[in-house]
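Thread: "does anyone have the structure for this chain?"

Original post by V.I.:
We have the sequence but no experimental structure in hand. Need at least a predicted one for the grant figures.
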Amino acid sequence: MKKALTPTQGTAAVSEPWREALRTFDADLQRRGSAERTRKAYGTDAAELASWATANGLLPDQVDYKVLRRWAARLSQRGAAPRTMARKLASIRSLFRSLLEHGVVASNPADLIPAPKLPQTLPKTLKPDDVARLLEKIPASTPLEQRDRALFELAYSSGLRAEELVDLDVTSINFDQEQVRVEGKGAKTRFVPTGEPALRSIATYLERARPALTGGEPETALFVSKSGRRLSTSDVRRRLRVWARHASTQTGVHPHALRHSFATHLLEGGADLRAIQEMLGHASISTTQVYTRVESARLRAAYAKSHPRA
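Reply from O.Q.:
Generated one for you, tokens below.
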């Protein structure tokens, strides 16, 4: 996989103390096993603050609560959306947490900055029939179609993130135990059950399609491109859009919609929330609880539509 940009790349007029702070921060993110996309986003946000602070003659240990309030106000004046503000604040909070651990600063000024209120949005899910139609519309007659059928059967069957799908190796699938070994966020390994339709599709792909795609060249990746290399997350999103259009499902279908559908359908079927949390790889149960709101919204809609006194 491509290495993420380091936080000091692409930034101008950043003082050496800030460059050292950014290097320290990036090293900590790597040590914690942060996803490369997270590293890049956090590094970019931290470098933006470093550039602004340098322009104002401020060193890392001179940034306090009032300084960060000025920085946040500047972002708001420039039209930063609440979600963007929340992400940047999370980045800066993580930056100063790292600097505090290394003794560069005496406290974390970002802890005092309140996070902006975000609109409560429910994750986008597909109905079971829509998922079935989407998967069944992938004909699986050519190597690429067989790969895509296996890819998206597994995405829905085990609720994997796009990053987790492309990181899988051939050895990640355990057919005997009907499960997949996943290297998730923070380099945490989990084992997730996999259904029979997904396992059948993967077996067909491994037997017939993958050898044709790799051309016999050594490659550890489970899912490979037509050139025999490991797929990227953009490949996964692009191919899902193609098949969603082909199946005439709702627009804007993305890999995370399959993950959300996986969790929602498990909850509707009576699965325990803690079990869903483990399968999704969520560090906190509060993250998983969003699916209870999805189910609650569905029940309220059914009530409003059907009850004579609703």
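V.I.: this helps a lot. Residues 128-305 form a domain with the hpI Integrase; Chain A fold (CATH 1.10.443.10).
O.Q.: and The chain has two domains: 16-112, 128-305.
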